[in-house]
Amino acid sequence: MSVTKVVIPAAGLGTRFLPATKAMPKEMLPVVDKPAIQYVVEEAVAVGLTDILMVTGRNKRSLEDHFDRAYELEDLLRAKGDASRLSKVRFSTNLANVHYVRQGDPRGLGHAVACAERHVGRETFAVMLGDDLIDEGDPLLARMIEVQKRYGGSVLALMEVPADQAHLYGCAAVEPAGGPEVVRVTDLVEKPAPGEAPSNLAIIGRYVLAPEIFDALRTTPPGKGGEIQLTDALRTVVTSPGAGPVHAVVFRGRRYDTGDRLDYLKAIVRLAADHPELGEDFTAWLDGFRRDG
């Protein structure tokens, strides 16, 4: 069965960005001229996944409004004859078929994914975290779907991190599988103690999950931080006899972390430099800024 559905957890409070996120969802923070969440949806659509479920929480109304029609704004732009901006406003509305479900209690990423079970059913599906933006020139999700079609089961995205930072991530023990960038996962540890990580391969925010993950999540107790961790449920799948395989793609492309304030600023600079309308002027200004201070 081909992958057709995407789950985007978007219920977090964005406390690391306070006070900016006091009244604005962190997913709506702008990255150049689009909210971060739009980059994620565009990435899904680029590989043909247009059935999208966002798992939201309180104070996420502006996120839903962004992918809805804005009749008054469209009428104003139409009356002004501003076809360019009208097209940009309509673009997010027509991107995909977006659905929403509330995560009533903030009980972790695993719980957020579990909230999608009724919509997903017994299908293989993708999970995309809005904190991780993947450069459109590095088609990670497409490669993950290819690997899932070949091997079945679930597929994770891994990225090498410095050994002294491995404790900040879920980390995987792996063995060779289908080439230098495809590995089979043999164990997983969520935020291991310093020096105890099974490798320096950290899980990043792209998953292609078989529906058996829902069975594992139902029996997964709260883990690190008192939350239901998706990594713990995946470990159950990895280590259970007869469960489907879990493979991973080791990603070495361009990833922009917008979940951290400093990395968020770096992401804006990098994407602004590549922007088709702004890039040349912005890069020239940036060169002058670095030279002259």
UniProtKB/TrEMBL annotation:
Residues 5-270 form the Nucleotidyl transferase domain. Its EC number is 2.7.7.9. It catalyses: alpha-D-glucose 1-phosphate + UTP + H(+) = UDP-alpha-D-glucose + diphosphate. InterPro entries: GalU_uridylyltTrfase_bac/arc, NTP_transferase_dom, Nucleotide-diphossugar_trans. It comes from the Bacteria. One of its GO terms (molecular function) is nucleotidyltransferase activity. Keywords: Nucleotidyltransferase, Transferase. Belongs to the UDPGP type 2 family. This is UTP--glucose-1-phosphate uridylyltransferase. It comes from Actinocorallia longicatena.
